[in-house]
Amino acid sequence: MNVVDKEMRTEADGHSVQHYIDEHPYWADGTAAPAPQMTAMQWRIWSLSVAGKFFEGLVVFMTGVAMPLIAKEFGLNAVQHGMVGSASLFGILIGASALGSLSDRFGRKRVFIFEIGLFIAFLAMIVFTPNFSWLIVCLLGMGLALGCDYPTAHLVISESTPSRTRGGLVLSAFGFQAVGALFGTVLGYIILTLDPSVGAWRWMYGCAIIPALAVFAGRFFIPESPHWLAVSGRERAAETELQKLLRRNPLYPKTISINGRREKHGERPHATGYRGLFQKQNRRALILASVPWFLQDLGTYGIGIFTPTILAATVGHQRQHAQNIADLVHNDLIAAKGTALLDVLLLVGIVAAVLLADRIGRIRLQVFGFVGCAAGLFIAAQAGAYSGVTQTALIFTGFMLFNFMTNLGPNAQTYLIAGEVFPTRIRGTGAGFAASFAKIGACLTAFLFPVLLADIGTTALLYALVATSLVGALVTFFFRIETKGISLDAS
Are 311 and 303 contacting, i.e. CB atoms less than 8 angstroms apart? Predict the structure, then answer.
């Protein structure tokens, strides 16, 4: 007789939310049955969370392809060039903490819907932006929405999935940032081929509106986080939402009874918001979640956004001093093709992270990844001493190693760790603060890279990023908190 036809038993005398999500069914004689598969609702939540990471990669990295055309249309100087590159990142910085923390107050679902609506509004506006000022406003607004998505999307997935597979599920969703980066670069190349004009960059952003609307509609049809409801003292609502989340055929668990945590007599209530975040017991987690993420963003966004510029400047075939639109588009197409090749390694790296995070652990992968990033950047830095084929080989080898290692290690693991090391009551606030702190590094590199590339050169910049990667490895090691397989109820 098939396993699902036999009688299964479950305890219904009151358990935590994570207990029910992680629970295995048992036969009547006490023998464990196979672990239940993910429900349709759990997969729906995962797929809708994927979208935020995809759109971030699309918008931020596509800006690298669109940048020369934007600069030409609006006549940007070096400072304005840096503002365009950093505007969306600055928006992410503000949005992650100012808006992401709202999920601790109003719930994960409401904020999850709000953020994609905000993104769509500014995405539509940028297509018709008439001048540089409105361009910055639109990029900033999109960044606010994407920043809000950093903690919220993580929490929506992690608080609805089993502990044993949480890391792989969160990182596979996060990996769509790399898919978005690759897709954005390829989309930019296709649009430039079909419409080799200065205004082609508007089509690049406009193509994302319709899929974003579909995601917006889908997010209305998911349950609220049972974890958040339980710690908010709404156990009956948590039970109802948990039943929606775990609906499967045959029904399992058959009954759900949540035991919410009650403050013990004489125990001081836990502080929430930023007051709770900076309490002594959370400081180690705060440093681990924030500082390494800041250090990795220095390299990931600096290299990611300006890879087309670096390739066009160092790897020949560029028409120097572009005299017309045709020359500008020619240079942009060359850089886009090289960037697309390098972005493939981002996908390979995130696939490796998905497969290994729940086996090896977050900390080991993050330390190893930081060291690998340093090695890749060091190899790329040697290109300045050579020319021709050797220079090209060093640049591509170094950047390919960097892209693989950053997504295997710090770019993926910092995101994962930030949503796991804080208690549920401040999880959105903590993850949002960590993302905001990290984006300070991203904004610094995006804004200063054009200036520093001109002032001190590519080689010196790459050596500086080698140093920051090694510091990231040290901070991760000394403040390590391993969260592999840990129940979120225990964090």
Answer: no
